[in-house]
Amino acid sequence: MSPTTGGWLLYLAVLLPFIGLMLGLVLGGRNAQHVARVTMLLGFTTVSALAWHIIESGHTLEYWLGGWAPPLGISLRADGLSMVMLLVVAVVIMAVGIYAQADFDTPQGQPETRRPFSFWLLMLAVWGSLNLVLVSGDLFTLYVALELLTFAGVPLVSLDGRGENLRAALRYILFALLGSLLYLLGAVLLYGAYGTLDIQLLAGLVRPEPLTWAVLALMTVGLLAKTALFPLHIWLPPAHAGAPAAASALLSALVIKGS
């Protein structure tokens, strides 16, 4: 499969939230909230254009980063399911952003604080990371995306800065890192056995042998830890209970759903 027309929209859907994140970081203070608003509108428009292109063309969109084809290069792909998930994520982000205006607004005349500044930047980081999860075409890019999602989600737990929130965030990151190690070990074993991590190429190469079952077990347990499914769920209740309402909505609706 060669890169398709309109594939650049995949690149833009991932890149826009991170551009907003960097602009908000540079401009600082209450400007981060204004940047987040503009980024949400642009990001939703981009995802809508992506969905329209997939519906109109009727085939999977693909984009090769740097023009290099897999297995040497990295591919971004979006089919109908990815399109739906990208749209759902964009809608949830916008809904949370509207709701968060009450909790994380910094009106003119009031001093700027760390809490709202951090929230708006982390929200954009969650969005960009999750978009990358949904369009990743190989297992290592997916690993990187899940790590970005984890490190954007953990600080949301401790926005209030209380001791119990910090303990909950620490427990969260320990479970998430354990899951990452197991997932990465599975990816390394797959690469050693088949010489590629591209999901589409692996689909034609992978065989039902003991190594494959071991990889499946490792990666599944790793993703279960990140998703907080029983019995690897003990980090979830304290993490969500201590997070602000808008941050908890991001964690519940988006962050743990990535894995």
Q: If strands are numbered along the chain, what order do they take across the biggest sheet?
A: 1-2
What count of structural domains?
1
Beta-sheet strand percentage?
A: under 5%
Count of strand segments:
2
Element-by-element helix/strand order: HHEEHHHHHHHH
CA(first)-CA(last) distance? 27 Å
Instruction: Sum up the overall morphology in one term.
Output: globular
What's the overall average pLDDT, rounded? 85
Structural class: mainly alpha
Number of helical regions: 10
Radius of gyration: 19 Å
Largest sheet data: 2 strands, antiparallel
Instruction: Work out the helicity level.
Output: over 70%
Provide the low-confidence segments as ranges: none
Core attributes:
259 residues; mainly alpha; two-stranded antiparallel sheet; 73% helix; 3% strand; globular
Write a compact overview of the structure shown:
This protein has 259 residues and is mainly alpha-helical. The protein has ten helices and two strands, in the order ααββαααααααα.
Question: How would you describe what is shown here?
Answer:
- A two-stranded antiparallel sheet has the order 1-2.
- The chain is mainly alpha-helical and 259 residues long.
- It has one domain (8-258).
- The chain contains ten helices and two strands; from the N terminus they run H-H-E-E-H-H-H-H-H-H-H-H.
- The longest helix has 32 residues, at 163-194.
- Helix 2 runs antiparallel to helix 3 (80-103) and helix 6 (163-194) crosses helix 9 (236-242).
- The model has no long low-confidence stretch (mean pLDDT 85).
